[in-house]
DNA sequence: TCCCTCGGTCCTGTTTTCCAACTTACCCGA
DNA sequence: TCGGGTAAGTTGGAAAACAGGACCGAGGGA
């Protein structure tokens, strides 16, 4: 215990459990219903229940009733949840390049009309950020 | 089972288990030794052993002997491992903005001399990618 | 009426994970 | 030579997480 304090660790404490990011992927792709999310992710239903509840509790999802009779619910992303799209894009791009064999299973298009290949740049100079192109200014030591 | 085929899922199958990304974070920040990685992540030693072994097996890390007598090892990132830096940066930025309260615990500087704030842009038009700014062209349905 | 859907809950057994102590192999200083 | 320290794990037992399937309640449709 008494590990390094870090926003990566904090982020993973919220979305790092198994199935959480896949559930968010589904909602981001427009799949909002419990049964569909369960089917598409492959998570067992009870685990998915606890994951979705946690994501609602921490404010990444909202559970909205979309039908009164019978009561039916759907999950929608909050602003914090939507902000995770950069993480999912980075993960998908990395998976496409280094893990998945063959063609990318999912292809996205940017509003500019071209196939989306995400690129991470420095918000200040707009140059791409390359591995080793950063230095640590300040960091918590455990 | 029989879930959606997707590079996000494939990526998470490799680095999605608890402690894996934190171990990679440490190596990326220059911490290469077992004991230090264990201390800084907070992972228990046995779990860390299996995680590091898996990361070596899938080719994200290499285990190198840096001392013959006694035998001592250190972990270094392969190119695939280094490529994960975009994922970690996205996660850290999201954590800084939406999870961590107060100041970011870790501050990085870009080679341009300014504090690094990563920005995800489209590699083609160089415009920022915003939530909902993409459409799905092709996708596997389970 | 009977069967179906949706959004879960419950139960049971298997896997993982956690935690602390132990091990091996060597170095160092007194 | 004795004791202590470090590095990189192993081991064993308890606790937690997970998988998979049955079940449930409120309604819908034929």
From TrEMBL, chains A, B:
Chain ranges of the HTH hxlR-type domain: 6-103
Organism: Saccharothrix tamanrassetensis
Keywords: DNA-binding, Transcription, Transcription regulation
InterPro entries with a match to the protein in the record: HTH_HxlR, WH-like_DNA-bd_sf, WH_DNA-bd_sf
Protein name, per record: DNA-binding HxlR family transcriptional regulator
UniProt cross-references to PANTHER family, sorted A to Z: TRANSCRIPTIONAL REGULATOR, MARR FAMILY, TRANSCRIPTIONAL REGULATORY PROTEIN
Superkingdom of origin: Bacteria
GO molecular function: DNA binding
Coiled coil: none
Top-level taxonomy: Bacteria, Bacillati, Actinomycetota, Actinomycetes, Pseudonocardiales
